[in-house]
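cache lookup: miss for this entity combination. No prior model stored, computing from scratch. Input as submitted by user K.M.:
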Amino acid sequence: MPDVDFILGHMNYWLFTVLMMTGLYIVVAKGNLIKKIVGLNLFQTAVFMFYISLGKVTGGTAPIFPVDMEIDPNVAYSNPLPHVLILTAIVVGIATTSLGLALIVRIREEYDTIEEDEILKIETDLVHVENKILGEAMGGRA
Amino acid sequence: MATEHVHVARTLMDHLPILVVLVPFLAAPLTVLLGSRRLAWPIAFVASLTSFLISIRLLLQVIDGGVISYHIGGWVPPLGIEYRIDAANAFVLLLVSAIGTIVMPYTVQSIKSEISERHQTLFYTMYLLCFTGLLGVVATGDAFNVFVFLEISSLSTYVLVAMGAKADKRALTAAYDYLIMGTIGATFFVIGIGFLYAGTGTLNMADIAAHISAKGADRTVETAFAFIMVGMGLKVAIYPLHLWLPNAYTYAPSAVTSFLAATATKVAIYVLIRFMFSVFQPNFLFEMNAVKGIMMPLALVAMFAASLIAVFQSDLKRMLAYSSIAQIGYILLGIGLLSATGLSGAIVHLFNHGITKAALFMGVGALVLQSGSSFYARIEGMGKVMPWTSFAIVIAGLSLIGVPGTAGFISKWVLVQAAIEQGWWWIALAVVASSLLAIIYVWRVIEVLYMKQPVDATRREAPLSMLIPMWIMALSTIWFGLDTDLTMSAARAAADGLLNGFVTGGASVGH
C-alpha cells in the first residue's frame, strides 16, 4: 500500500522531477537545434519551480513588511531568499537562451540547416575531405 | 593558524578580495562603451595586470595558512555574501590571473588573423568577462555566487569559442554543443545548491560545512553532493562527460584555447575540490565510498583512453585537447586518493599542467598564424623555419610527458608518492605507463616539426609579441620544475587548509 500522504505531500517534488526530466529528454532526443533550446528552457524552469516551492512556508503569507513596519510575531512569512536567487537564475536562463538562439542563427547562415543529423553529415564530409588531403599521409585521423 | 583578517574595510587594501574580481568586471563594459579597437587592448591588459598583482598580494597574505574573510557591503555572513580567500583559492587566483595576463599580449597578433575585424573589440570584452567569471568563482565563499560567476564565465566562453567561425564554421556547432552541455552541468549544479539549501538552510560555504559537521549528512545533503559532482564533472570534463571539450578547443581561436585550457577546467576542478573537501568534509567523503569507486576508475580510464586517442590524431590542436582530458585524469586521480599528499599533488598538477598547456597552445597558435593550419601535414619541418616556436613546444611537450627538470615531473612525482603512500603501487605504475603514451604523442610532434623537410621554406618566425608570452610560459615550466618552493608550499598549505575544512576557520567567521 503506497503512502498516499507522503506522495501528495511531496507534490511539488514530483512535478519538478517530471518537468525536469521532460526538458532533459527533449534536449537529448530532439534533433532540431531550436527544440533543444526549448527543452533546455523547460529543464531550467523546472529548477526554478523547485527553488520557489522550497521557499513556501505552510500558512505563510507574502514576505512584505506592513506599511506601519510593525511586525506581528504571530504571522508566518514565506522565505523570500529562494525567490531572489531565482530572479538571478532567470536572468542567466534568458542570457543562455538568447545566446543559444543567436548561435543557431549563425549556424543556419553557415550550414543552411538547423537539423542536427544534417549538420553532422556536412561535418563528416568535411572531415573526409580533410583526411584525404592532410590526414592519410600521416597515417592518422583528422 | 594565522590571524583571521576581520573585515572592517577602511583602506583600499582591505578591499582587495573584491577588487580582484571587480576591476576586470568594470573594464569589460568600458571596452564596449568606448568602442575603440585601439583602446580595447590597453584597457583589458591593465585590468588583467591589476588582477594579477592583487592575486600575488593576496597569496602572500594567506600562504602561511591565514584566511581573509571579506563581507560584501558590510553584511555579516552567513546572511551576507562572503568572499573568503585562503591558500587554496589564492593559489588558483594566481594561476588564472597570471595566465590571463600573459596571454594578453599574445592575443594581439593571433586574433588579427583568426577573428574578423569587427569582432575584435568585443573579443576583449568577452575575454574580460570570462576572466571575471573565473576569478569570481574562485574568490567567493557563497555557494550560489559560485553559480552566478560560473555562468558569467561560461556564457562568455561560448561566445569566445564561436568566434573561431571565421577560420572554420565548425566553431559554431562546437560552441552550441558546449552551450547545451555546459548549461545542463550548471543547472545540475544549481539543483545541488538547492538541495544543500533545503538541507542546511544556508548558502554560505563555511556555514554549510559547520552545519554538516554538526548535524551529519542526511539524504538531502547526499543528493546535493551527487548533483554537484555531476554538474561540475561536466565543466571539468571528467572522462565520460568530456564530449564538448575536443571540438571546443580545436575550433576556438588559438588565443582563446590557450587561455581556456589553462584556466577554465582548472577553475572547475577547484570548485569540485572546494565542495568535496571544505563544504562536504573528508569524513563525509570517506562514508561516501562512491568517490573512490567512481572517481578513481574514471580518472584511470581518462589517463589511458584519452592519451591513446591523442596518439592517433593528425591535428596538433586536437591532439593537445585529448591530452588535456588525460591530464585532467591525473588531477582527479590525486583527488580520488583522498589524502593530503594526493590532494597537494592534484593542486600542483593543476598549476603545472595549466602553464604547460598554455605554452603548448600558444605554440600551436603561432604555427597556425604562419601556416594557416595545425594539421601535421601542414606544419612539417617547421622546426627549421620557426626554431623559437618549435623549441618552446618541445620544452612544454617534455613537461607534458613529465621529464625530470620540468614542472610536469614534479606533479607526477607527488602523485606517484601519494599512491605509494597508500600502498597502491599499481596506481603508481599506471601513472608511469600513461606517461609512456604521452612520450608517443609528443614524439610524433617532434618528428613532424624537426625530421621532415619544410613544406614552405619562405615562412618566417612568429612575431615577438607571441614569442615572448610563449617563452615566459615555456621557461616557467622549467623554473617550476627546478624550484618547487612556491608551488609545493602553496599546494601543501592549500591541501592542509582544504582537508581541515572550514571547521578551524569557521568559528571565527563574522566579527
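stored under new cache key. The longest helix of chain A spans residues 81-111.
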